[in-house]
Design brief:
Layout (H helix, E strand, L loop, with lengths): L28 E3 L2 E11 L4 H12 L4 E7 L4 E6 L6 H10 L3 E3 L7 E8 L4 H12 L4 E7 L4 E6 L6 H10 L3 E7 L5 E7 L4 H12 L4 E7 L4 E6 L6 H9 L9 E4 L5 H33 L13 E3 L2 E2 H17 L1 H12 L5 H25 L9 H25 L1 H7 L5 E7 L5 E8 L8 E4 L8 E6 L2 E4 L1 H4 L5 E3 L4 E2 L4 E2 L4 E7 L5 H14 L6 H31 L13 H15 L3 H20 L2 E3 L2 H7 L4 E5 H5 L5 E7 L5 H12 L5 H17 L9 E7 L3 E6 L2 E6 L1 H6 L6 H12 L3 E7 L2 E9 L6 H10 L3 E5 L4 H11 L3 E3 L4 H13 L4 E5 L5 H6 L2 E5 L4 H6 L2 E3 L5 H35 L4 H4 L5 H20 L14
Parallel strand pairs: 26-33, 26-35, 33-34, 35-36, 36-37
Antiparallel strand pairs: 1-2, 2-4, 2-5, 3-4, 6-8, 6-9, 7-8, 10-12, 10-13, 11-12, 14-15, 16-17, 16-18, 18-24, 19-22, 19-24, 20-21, 20-23, 25-37, 27-32, 28-29, 29-30, 30-31, 31-32
């Protein structure tokens, strides 16, 4: 379960983009003076409002600067400028010349756009698109996903733009549509009414740009649309709609509403499926008669005898009909193969279209030659292959149709996630006393941060937020995979997309739009599906030489059968009665061309990764791409943090003792003063317990003394001065570093506490230990079973903790971990990980805190507990949303199953080719008389792709190997 923030305020999203930086992605907006961009950066040295005025004055006088906003509180500057008139470097220099230091300033502006790619058939297609994109000036990185049919491009907007990028894809012979561009994270589109002229557009644009929090506005008055990028902390879509409606001088009224573009992915997927279905049916309309006229009716005497009637010379009715019916299939239905081949050859590559075009054209034009020769000759008798061409195209289109239907199901899990958010929500307005003033049903997309939303029993939670009133149980299984409903009370978090089961609750929205956990899960899974797994390199390398090798093999096959047949090296009886050596060799050559298909090879990895990452997301395991999947399956050692990972992370003080004459009230005051500034869970437990003790011994309203020179000692504790007294609160290591001696009484107490698997927090005053707290952090109920299950999988376990040795060993013994490293500082954890890696172990690290992030980054696979910090989540390869240790097993097991499935897919893909090509080439023909007709070879080729996709789809049935029932 995602953790609770008792303060009721969430400033950071649960899952931040791992590629994000502190600078907003610049957004372009068209206005009267050209392209304006916005850039945000940090400025050090701002101490008051006059400093902000100085920066604004320094920048405001520069040519090309449109507006400057400086926040003294945040230490940030937002500058809107015209790139044609001034560079970002000049902006930076102007701020530094004014005497301030600039931080987090982008050396180069990089934007990201995503494109939907149409027409990809195999890995060579995706590689060709990547090469075409990387050749565009300004494109820094391009990744094309075959199964996802998307491209993600990082580019410099000062050098190129999206139009040039789309043109590059189209020039390579593929279709491209823009899915998203720039920072779509906080972008809204409005539909405008009563917009009659460019002047109206300028009025609305000016009004919207004047709002705080609006970074860019783009108005399309012809389409009556406006696109706005905004800061959700400052403004929201409802305020933008209100501003657009109230723009102008009052004589003109506008109407604005939220515009939701149609789901292009669904419509395009449906259109592609219908296109292949229609082409298959059209092909069948002509191909089936060809098949009947060539393969069926001639065998049914006397019903097929009319086909042998001669039209002119030796040209028969059957041959003429086959020619007539085959031609539309070859040139109308098969046009797509010609187009694909042309573009592939133009970019100096080859794909499936090239093989199909070569095979069908060889069969068709040879058949045309036979028909013309029969037309002109009185004695010529020859066999045409019109059915080969027609049936080949028919079976390939059937295969593509079944393939796109199956591929559509690989993203079912992701589609289900995106549909979890409800369409509407009830917005509540409260008065100062918390009484409801009004209740309005609004679109979920209009919810703004800090809105109060009413959620009735059975309704879905529309956004992430904190319960402020009411109690209920919420089913979070669709997000976390946890089947048991979670109790919610005021102060608890709720996640958008989950279902409120019984009570009515009021929720304060904390994350909206793209910041919600659900949106970030979807974004993370989409990015993971786009990334290539290292195991795919095999397919990429094979695909580069695959088609040329197949063409060469087909030519060799034709020569091997044709030349010996002409010179009589094999018996004439091998050649069918209605064929000669040339025709037999041609059929073998065409069969070799079409039986080998690179499509299945290219689909083997991405389809499995798509299904696995989507399935993992629905089970509460977020896997950041194929690379993380591949590394996870190799893990032989799992290293666990203790606090918050193996334990619940909610320490409780079970006892407090004094070793001096200092009154208990003063002892509590000193502990509170020192620990109140620490974020460590143990520190919070100490403060909470000390406050309760202080209430028993003294007045709760008395002010806590202020601490000065406060210092955190990582892995040891804290120290500072309270008045003239030096106070230290921490473990034995902290006391030793300050030279504080330990009496026998203290040592005995510490030993007793640690043997009970508890942590002893010592309080020192002026070089003497005056008391101690015994803190216990219960072990998670599933920890023991998870460790035992990992051992049964052949995986060793290690515990790394900053806690003392005795407590760590006691916890390790309780859960079954034999190897324990205690009293380890954060960087020391990373060093321990590296030591294990040097022994040849693939290491996974499971942690939850900021102090775990170096170790998470150093490990082969970092697994972050979902309730942990943003830093830990960002550093990890896998995020366990539910914070349950059983998902460590799930992540490793799912990765093993996926890699196993990918290997099986390669067996299917390569197996068809390895077995099919020799049979197609006629290896069995001399011994058994078995040969593979070209149309049947085409069916086998189609079957290879379908089998690979269906094999990947079997991962949809994945079940967790370990499920712990909680009391």
């Amino acid at each position: 379960m995602i953790g609770v923030n008792g303060n009721g305020e969430l400033k950071e999203p649960l899952l931040r983009n791992s590629g994000s930086i502190a600078v907003s992605v610049p957004e372009a907006v068209q206005n009267g003076d050209g392209k304006v961009r916005s850039i945000t950066f940090k400025v050090n040295g701002i101490s008051c409002a006059s400093c902000a005025v100085s920066i604004e004055s320094a920048l405001g006088g520069l040519n090309g600067i449109r507006s400057v906003m400086v926040s003294p509180l945040l230490g940030q500057a937002v500058v809107k400028y015209v790139p044609e008139l001034i560079s970002t470097e000049a902006i930076k220099e102007a701020v530094e010349d004014a005497g301030f230091e600039v931080e987090d300033f982008p050396e180069q502006e990089i934007e990201v756009c995503r494109l939907r790619i149409k027409g990809m058939a195999c890995t060579s297609c995706s590689e060709s698109i990547e090469r075409a994109l990387l050749m565009v000036d300004g494109v820094k990185k391009a990744v094309v996903g075959l199964a996802l049919e998307e491209a993600k491009i990082h580019f410099d907007p000062s050098v190129t733009d999206i139009k040039h990028i789309v043109s590059a894809v189209e020039d390579a012979g593929f279709g491209a549509d823009v899915i998203s561009s720039g920072n779509d994270a906080n972008k809204v589109q409005l539909k405008l009414e009563d917009l009659n002229s460019p002047e109206d557009a300028m009025i609305i644009q000016s009004s919207l740009e004047a709002l705080d929090g609006v970074s860019s506005v783009e108005v399309d008055w012809k389409e009556n649309k406006v696109t706005i990028c905004y800061e959700p902390d400052l403004i929201g879509p409802r305020s933008l709609i209100k501003c657009a409606e109230e723009a102008g001088d009052g004589s003109k009224k506008y109407s604005a509403s939220l515009y939701n573009p149609p789901n292009r992915r669904e419509s395009e997927s449906l259109a592609e499926t219908q296109m292949y279905r229609d082409q298959f049916l059209l092909s069948a309309l002509f191909s089936v008669p060809v098949f009947l006229f060539s393969m069926v009716l001639p065998m049914l005497h006397p019903y097929g005898d009319w086909l042998d009637i001669k039209v002119y010379n030796m040209l028969t009715v059957g041959m003429l009909l086959r020619w007539i019916f085959c031609t539309p299939v070859q040139f109308i239905v098969g046009r797509r193969f010609y187009s694909g081949s042309y573009h592939a050859l133009r970019r100096k590559s080859a794909n499936m279209d090239v093989l199909v075009a070569l095979g069908t054209n060889a069969a068709y034009w040879y058949s045309v030659y036979i028909a013309i020769k029969a037309l002109l000759s009185h004695t010529f008798v020859g066999q045409d292959f019109f059915e080969t061409s027609a049936m080949l195209i028919l079976f390939i289109l059937l295969g593509k149709y079944l393939e796109v239907v199956a591929k559509g199901k690989t993203s079912d899990a992701l589609a289900k996630l995106t549909e979890l958010t409800p369409d509407t929500a009830y917005l509540i307005t409260l008065d100062k006393d918390g009484n409801t003033i009004s209740e309005t049903e609004i679109s979920t997309q209009l919810i703004q941060r800090n809105d109060i939303i009413k959620i009735v029993p059975g309704a879905k939670v529309p956004v992430d937020g904190i319960v402020i009133d009411g109690q209920s149980h919420v089913n979070e299984s669709m997000i976390t995979g946890e089947a048991k409903p979670i109790a919610k009370k005021p102060g608890d978090k709720v996640i958008g997309g989950t279902v409120n089961e019984n009570g009515c609750i009021l929720v304060k929205a904390t994350h909206v739009g793209s910041e919600t956990a659900l949106s970030q899960i979807v974004q993370l899974v989409e990015s993971a599906q786009l990334a290539r797994a290292p195991v795919q390199k095999l397919a990429d390398q094979i695909s580069k030489v695959f088609v040329p090798i197949v063409v060469l093999a087909a030519v060799i096959t034709w020569l091997v059968w044709f030349v010996p047949g002409e010179v009589g090296l094999y018996p004439r009886s091998w050649i069918p009665e209605d064929m000669d050596a040339f025709e037999l060799a041609l059929q073998f050559g065409i069969s070799v061309l079409v039986v080998a298909c690179p499509c299945a090879l290219g689909l083997a990895t991405p389809t499995a990764v798509m299904v696995a990452t989507g399935k993992g997301a629905t089970q509460g395991v977020l896997i950041k791409g194929g690379n993380a999947l591949e590394k996870a399956h190799k893990v032989k050692t799992v290293v666990f943090d203790k606090t918050g990972t193996l334990t619940l992370g909610k320490p409780n003080v079970v006892s407090a003792v004094l070793f001096s004459t200092v009154p208990m009230e003063e002892f509590c005051d000193l502990a509170i003063a020192a620990e109140v500034n620490s974020e460590h869970p143990i520190a919070k437990a100490v403060v909470e317990h000390a406050r309760r003790l202080r209430t028993n011994y003294g007045s709760e309203t008395e002010q806590i003394p202020e601490i000065k020179d406060f210092e955190v000692h990582p892995g040891a504790g804290v120290s500072g001065k309270v008045g003239k007294n030096v106070v230290m609160v921490g473990n034995k290591r902290l006391m030793r570093s300050f030279g504080v001696p330990e009496s026998d009484e203290v040592e005995r107490y510490v030993t007793e506490v640690e043997q009970l698997a508890r942590t002893c927090v010592l309080v020192g005053l002026n070089g003497k230990i005056i008391g101690a707290f015994a803190v216990t952090d219960p072990v998670k109920p599933e920890a023991g079973r998870v460790i035992a299950y990992l051992h049964s999988m052949g995986i060793s376990t290690v515990m790394l903790t900053g806690d003392n040795w005795a407590t760590a060993e006691a916890i390790g013994k309780e859960v079954g971990i034999g190897k324990v490293f205690a009293e380890t500082v954060p960087l020391g954890k990373a060093d321990k990980i590296k030591e294990l890696q040097l022994k040849g172990m693939a290491v996974a690290m499971v942690g939850d805190g900021i102090n775990d992030s170096p170790a998470l980054a150093a490990a082969d696979v970092g697994m972050a507990i979902g309730a942990g910090t943003d830093v830990a989540i960002e550093a990890a390869d896998i995020v366990l949303i539910k914070s349950s240790l059983e998902d460590v097993v799930t992540a490793i097991d799912l990765s093993r199953k996926t890699i196993s499935r990918i290997r099986l897919n390669y067996v299917w893909a390569l197996g068809y080719n390895i077995l099919g090509m020799p049979i197609a080439a006629g290896v069995l023909f001399p011994f058994t008389g078995i040969r593979l007709p070209p149309w049947l070879a085409g069916a086998c080729m189609a079957a290879s792709s379908i089998s690979v996709v269906c094999s990947s789809l079997l991962l949809q049935s994945y079940k967790k190997p370990l499920h712990v029932e909680y009391a």
